[in-house]
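Posted in: Structural Biology > Protein-Ligand Complexes

Title: Requesting predicted complex, threonylcarbamoyladenylate in pocket

I'd be grateful if someone could produce the 3D structure tokens for the following input. Sequence and ligand are given below.
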Amino acid sequence: MTAPVADIPRAVALLRAGELVAFPTETVYGLGADAGNPGAIARIFAAKGRPADHPLIVHLPDASHLERWAVDIPEAARKLAAAFWPGPLTLILKRHASVQDAITGGQDTVGLRVPNHPLALQLLREFGGANGGGLAAPSANRFGHVSPTTAAHVREELGDAVAMILDGGPCAVGIESTILDLSSGEPRILRPGMLDADAIGAVLGRPPAFGGEQNAPRVSGSLEAHYAPRTPLRLVAAADLATAARQALEAGQRIAVLASEPPVSGDSNMIWSAAGTDATRFAHDLYARLREFDALDCDLILVAAPPDAEAWRAVADRLRRAAAGSK
Ligand code: TXA
Ligand code: MG
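-- Reply #1 --
Done. Output follows.
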């Protein structure tokens, strides 16, 4: 069912008919539906098993479509769009009155992004280029689970719930976009991503704030338990990793270890994956490795906590939620 590039016209026809089409982006694969069709949007929630009040990101072919979806667009949004779109940045703006409630979760804001993948852009142009249409697309996984970074992962996650999967190869970034709230004065990162606060701050002229306040918009990616493999995952300080691994092995467990360094000694009950010391590489591989570990039927995944540095913030965030979600 994985489709060759030439099937964009079929993908567009399916989307116009209210069907779901999964497509690649530079971050993770998205589960796409016509953002103007409430029936199609309902299908997304059913396929993912996602609670209906969680808002969806609308994907656009380029920033010239912003006015169709948002109002009171601040200058900062235009600057950031010019600097980073297409790219792994989602902007939360005040919604246009015409945006479906099912997209916004009933809030007065909408999440918008132009993804940087040639297939996604071709699909978005052919679907919405002329009439300003957009594609609602959450990550193409079951709710709470690890996001898919290949077409095969999408098939594993969603099976026949999706009418078509466009195969664009493995995603370049590997974890979800940075979400920046520009709807209420101070720019605020609601979900860290590989486009980091330093890059955003350089364009804004001041560093963005972090985290949601009490009445900030809901972000399902901000739930404590999210992005989780099926196998229990434990984060341990790098210095304690060898001890934690030995204790688990002595307790008779089969373990998978994700660390920057190769193992000191081997064990037939231990699968050790050396992830390297580069945050970009680590993010790129992370979800695929968690899926590989799940397939090995281990008792425990041990992950060495990443360095406390801005470049690692998004990876650390996903690992923390994976640990919370897999208990
Ligand atoms: O990289 C990505 O952003 C991927 C690709 C497919 O574009 N999409 C993605 O979508 O991660 P999803 O639905 O899995 O996560 C989007 C997050 C959700 O946590 C949702 O709550 C939040 O964006 N979101 C969407 N609209 C929002 C809004 N108006 N206010 C606050 N958060 C919003
Ligand atoms: Mg998601």
